[in-house]
Design goal:
This protein has helices at residues 2-5, 12-29, 39-43, 57-68, 72-94, 115-140; strands at residues 51-54, 106-109. By secondary structure, the protein is mainly alpha-helical. Strands 1-2 form a two-stranded parallel ribbon. The longest helix is centred in the last third of the chain and has 26 residues, at 115-140.
Length: 142
């Protein structure tokens, strides 16, 4: 942003380099949530707790229609465009497929659960990972 204000050009590689730096710095601070931008690929499986949130496409379209007051056709187009952009970004920047569940600690489907229930699952999953990792770390360093 500073570069754009100063009239300097920023290319894609600069963006990716700064993205890595920002996400790594934020992870060092702790207590942060990174939504999207490949945080799971930047941090890897041993840092952070990586959650993929999914929902059936019809649910996503209906939600977009309701919250953004769009027609079904507009919402469907936007959902597909958003999904395509996210897939392209992950493939282009990280060489990864965002739909591969192996890149996540947990995948939650919002179709049949309320937000509070899902949040409890995520917290439980996070606590389990922290416990397992601290046990592994302790046993690796006697």
């Amino acid at each position: 942003v500073e570069s754009m204000i100063a009239g300097q050009s920023v290319d894609y590689s600069d963006y990716v380099k700064h993205l890595h730096r920002v996400i790594l710095s934020m992870s060092e601070l702790g207590g942060v949530v990174v939504i999207g931008r490949g945080g799971n690929f930047i941090l890897g499986p041993n840092r952070g707790f990586h959650v993929r949130v999914v929902a059936p496409i019809d649910n996503r379209i209906e939600n977009l229609c309701a919250y953004r007051h769009m027609s079904r056709a507009e919402a469907e187009s936007q959902v597909h465009r958003y999904d395509d952009e996210r897939r392209h970004f992950a493939k282009h920047v990280f060489g990864r497929n965002i739909d591969d569940p192996h890149y996540y600690d947990m995948v939650v489907n919002t179709a049949l659960s309320d937000v509070e229930t899902l949040a409890n699952f995520v917290v439980q999953g996070y606590n389990t990972k922290v416990s397992v990792m601290s046990t592994h770390h302790a046993s690796a360093h006697p």
